[in-house]
Every structure is written in structure tokens, then in C-alpha cells.
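Exam revision sheet. Question 4 asks you to relate a sequence to its structure. Input first:
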Amino acid sequence: MRPQHPPRHLPRGQIPYAPIPRGRRRRPRLSRLRPWCCPRCFSRWARPSLLPEGRPALDQLAAELKARPGVRIRVSGYTDRVGEHDKNQVLSEQRATAVKDYLVKAGVEADRISTIGYGDSRPLFTSPNARNRRVEVEEVK
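Answer key, C-alpha cells:
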């Protein structure tokens, strides 16, 4: 492997980076929890129950949350535009609650998780589309 040389446009003797002096080192910060979306958790029409295909993703999320006990999250439920608006609103809240219940059973504290349902008011795809039946998880400060 060839040694790395500084770029030619730098003045002679200058290096492309400067190391942080020992007394001023910063502790590494934990990265924020990236927004997370699970469209495969709920693909059945008008049902708030979790599908087996979505459980590995939820298990991974639960493991990450247990490793970072200071993180609080919001679980947002969504539906497609098939059906009545009021029923879709209730269904989206039930889906968000189903994800919260699963995470609590996996060992995440319930007071770290808040839920909200948006119904069919925020579609990602033109309706009717099953990919709008989803749950999103994001970190809250």
C-alpha cells in the first residue's frame, strides 16, 4: 500500500488535518436515532395487528433502545385513504399502540414511548397504496 501524501496545493510543511491536543479531546457523542419506518409491519387492510414479517425490524429497534436508555421516541401510525376518515384515524392510533406494546414487551420502558395517529392525512404515495399503511418511529428531545 502506498503512503498517503498531503495534497500538492497545501503550502510546504502544512498537513491537511490537525490533531486535537490531548487536554482538549472531546468525548464521542452518541449518534441520534435515525427516523425509522416500518411499512411491512401492517399490510393487512383495516387491521392493527402486527405481521410476522415486521417483527425482526421491531426486535432490532428494541435492542437499540435498550442499549440507549436515555432516548425517548414517538411512534406515529398511518393508514391509506381506503375507508372512512374517522375509522382510519382510530386505526392509525391502534397501530401505533400495537408497536408500543411490542416494544414494551421486548423490555423498553413504556414512559419512553409516546404514540400518535395521523390517519390518512399524511400519505407518502398516491392513494390507494398499501405502502401508506405504516408506522414511523423518531427520537424526541
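Marking note for examiners. The first helix runs from residue 55 to 67.
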